[in-house]
Design goal:
Number of strands of chain B: 7
Shape of chain B: globular
Helix content of chain A: 25-40%
Distance between the termini of chain B: 10 Å
Number of helices of chain B: 5
Strand order of the largest sheet of chain B: 2-1-3-5-7
Order of helices and strands of chain A: HEEHEEEEHEH
Structural class of chain A: alpha/beta
CATH architecture of chain B: 3-Layer(aba) Sandwich
Low-confidence stretches of chain A: none
Strand content of chain B: 15-25%
Number of helices of chain A: 4
Shape of chain A: elongated
CATH class of the largest domain in chain A: Alpha Beta
CATH topology of the largest domain in chain A: Beta Polymerase, domain 2
Order of helices and strands of chain B: HEHEEEHEHEEH
CATH superfamily of the largest domain in chain A: NADH:ubiquinone oxidoreductase Nqo5 subunit
Largest sheet of chain A: 5 strands, mixed
Helix content of chain B: 25-40%
CATH architecture of the largest domain in chain A: 2-Layer Sandwich
Number of domains of chain B: 1
Largest interface: A-B, 13 and 11 residues
Number of strands of chain A: 7
Largest sheet of chain B: 5 strands, parallel
Structural class of chain B: alpha/beta
Low-confidence stretches of chain B: none
Oligomer: heterodimer
């Protein structure tokens, strides 16, 4: 059995530091932690994890449509220590209202998240405030600005009609 | 049979274009050209430019981003041109059907002469398609 010292230490100090703002946290299995925080402490959490535990590699970011809200996961990795096997993967989740989806950017703390934030904007329309370069990343040139293809309400026929309307590339 | 047609049938030059596939078909195609299955015994040789080609061999479904570029490449192939849709995606959209950023198959964009199904196609299917293409070249 692997010891869970590292995991418990991270969970305890997150609970202690953020208290009520840490909505949910659990250790799924060794080296795998899931946490949910309020948007107001998102940047603090990221910098805390980076400075205290050197969990500072963003493997990827993913979005999920939860109906009225959009969830954004930051999949962070780090904390490789002497005497332990492997790094810890911590999935940090925040939710934002779909009607007014905004999150603060974390590019000033972890510059590597720049492209992932652009991708989440493309697919889900989450605006990252303070992002240095918020151009579209993956969608084709001439894509209509108000179409976010991975949102549930986005239907293929609507997309095609809108692309026809703006006369985008590949229509 | 005039000399141009004779040489085309003896050695059709192929331009290979990936219009948005996963690279599986491309690897299979290059493997089929190598000595084990040896498509080059029919004189089929890959060229680096569409202007040198008789056959435009397309893999992958056509994404919206590449749509206009693909049409330009097609226009650059000199007449008479032959198009081979290589793999399930190129034939019908494959797993990308009903996706928001693709056209379902090469034939939605340009006329296609020969379809090679499979994901990716077997070497035997590729050789069969090559022989059928030669027949078509002969009849043209």
């Amino acid at each position: 059995m692997a010891t869970m010292d590292r995991e418990n230490k991270i969970v305890d100090s997150l609970k202690e530091k953020f208290g009520q703002d840490l909505l949910e946290i659990k250790i799924q299995k060794p080296r795998r932690i899931f946490a949910t925080v309020k948007v107001s402490v998102l940047k603090n959490t990221i910098s805390f994890l980076k400075n205290r535990f050197s969990i500072m590699h963003v493997s990827t970011m993913s979005g999920v449509d939860l109906g009225k809200e959009i969830g954004v996961y930051y999949h962070l990795m780090g904390n490789k220590l002497e005497g332990y096997v492997g790094e810890i993967v911590l999935s940090l989740k925040v939710t934002t209202q779909k009607s007014e989806s905004k999150l603060p950017t974390i590019t000033d703390i972890i510059p590597g998240s720049e492209l992932y934030e652009r991708e989440v904007y493309d697919m889900f329309g989450v605006v990252f405030e303070g992002h240095p370069d918020p151009r579209p990343l993956l969608l084709p040139d001439g894509w209509p600005e108000d179409v976010f293809p991975l949102r549930k309400e986005c239907k293929l026929d609507d997309i095609e009609a809108k692309i026809e309307k703006v006369g985008g590339v590949g229509s | 049979m005039d000399i141009v047609k004779w040489s085309r049938v003896k050695s059709p030059w192929v331009f290979h274009f990936n219009a948005g596939g996963c690279n599986g078909c491309d690897i299979e195609l290059l493997a089929a050209l190598n000595p084990k299955y040896d498509l080059e015994r029919f004189g089929m040789i890959l060229r680096g430019s569409p202007r040198h080609a008789d056959v435009l061999l397309c893999t992958g479904t056509v994404t919206r981003q590449i749509h206009d570029r693909f049409k330009r490449i097609y226009d650059q192939v000199p007449e008479p041109k032959f198009v081979m849709a290589f793999g399930s995606c190129a034939c019908s959209g494959g797993v990308f059907q009903k996706c928001y950023n693709v056209h379902e198959g090469i034939d939605k964009v340009v006329p296609v002469d020969i379809y090679v199904p499979g994901c990716p196609p077997r070497p035997q299917a590729i050789i069969d398609a090559a022989v059928k293409l030669l027949t078509k070249l002969q009849q043209s």
